[in-house]
């Protein structure tokens, strides 16, 4: 099964019926996701917020750890999701949040989950309609986000089954870095430790190799072809012959990279805690690149 759908393919699916579309627009450090949704979304798509539905509270497990299964289940049910739902998720354009949603929903036991390639921007560029909603008063924003604002018709019955996909735990990171391939998907300057705009420590996990996620997409946010992605992955030693794990700042872009590799037939497991979890213990080693 292809993990991506085009805007035209999604339009045909919606005409046929039976597909649940979920809006997961999100901007790190930007406006609340519910405001992005209110500004424009695919008609009939309810909003599933990355925080708290797809990530737990920030802390020692990193900035975007795994969500509480009961919280995720409640959000999905309020979005009308059942165990056998066919789901398409989308965000603004780059599939950053959609990649996280794609992975989390499959980790939660849902088996038919795809991503709108190019997100809402691709939908608009194809000439399809967009709905909007008046921004809610600030006092009700959190309540609306919890309820999954927008068009889900009826409450779903999904039962979340956490652990349906493997995840790399903190204790296993050194083993994969030494005996497999730990891919740091952040920008090269963050990997090298030259800059760190978000976390308190710059650098990378020792043994990790750098394969920036940005290389995997075109400028319009759509993914490169499977052949192109396989070629880029091969440069980092990824050819399907060894264990691969992905890491970023907080496990969101790491999930996006898992999606990118999956479109090319390559398996990988995200380290959800990623760099923001690794640096919570000052005794853990940090690597940088100089010269």
Automatic annotation (TrEMBL):
It holds the Pfam family Rhodanese. The keyword Repeat applies. Coiled coil: none annotated. The keyword Repeat applies. SMART domains: RHOD. Keywords: Repeat, Transferase. One of its GO terms (molecular function) is thiosulfate-cyanide sulfurtransferase activity. It is an enzyme of class 2 (transferase). Its EC number is 2.8.1.1. Residues 15-132, 176-287 form the Rhodanese domain. PANTHER family: SULFURTRANSFERASE (PTHR11364:SF27), THIOSULFATE SULFERTANSFERASE (PTHR11364). This is Putative thiosulfate sulfurtransferase sseB.
């Amino acid at each position: 099964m292809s993990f991506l759908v085009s805007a035209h393919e999604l339009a045909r699916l919606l005409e046929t019926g039976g597909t649940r579309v979920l809006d997961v627009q999100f901007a790190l450090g930007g406006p609340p996701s519910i405001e992005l949704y209110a500004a424009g979304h695919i008609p009939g798509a309810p909003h599933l917020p990355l925080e708290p539905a797809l990530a737990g509270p920030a802390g020692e497990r990193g900035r975007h750890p795994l969500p509480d299964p009961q919280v995720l289940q409640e959000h999905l049910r309020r979005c009308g999701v059942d165990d056998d739902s066919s789901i398409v998720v989308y965000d603004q354009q780059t599939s950053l949040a959609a990649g996280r949603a794609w992975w989390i929903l499959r980790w939660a036991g849902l088996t038919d989950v795809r991503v709108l390639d190019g997100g809402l921007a691709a939908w608009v560029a194809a000439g399809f309609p967009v709905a909007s909603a008046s921004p809610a008063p600030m006092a009700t924003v959190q309540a609306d986000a919890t309820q999954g604002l927008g068009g889900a018709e009826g409450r779903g019955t999904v039962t979340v089954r956490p652990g349906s996909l493997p995840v790399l735990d903190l204790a296993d990171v050194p083993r994969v870095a030494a005996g497999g391939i730990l891919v740091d998907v952040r920008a090269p300057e963050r990997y090298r430790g030259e800059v760190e705009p978000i976390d308190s420590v710059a650098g990378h996990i020792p043994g990790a190799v750098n394969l920036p996620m940005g290389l995997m997409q075109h400028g319009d946010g759509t993914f490169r072809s499977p052949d192109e992605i396989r070629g880029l992955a091969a440069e980092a030693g990824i050819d399907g012959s060894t264990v691969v794990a992905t890491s970023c700042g907080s496990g969101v872009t790491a999930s996006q990279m898992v999606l990118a590799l999956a479109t090319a037939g390559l398996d990988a497991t995200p380290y959800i805690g990623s760099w923001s979890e690794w640096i919570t213990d000052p005794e853990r080693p940090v690597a940088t690149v100089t010269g």
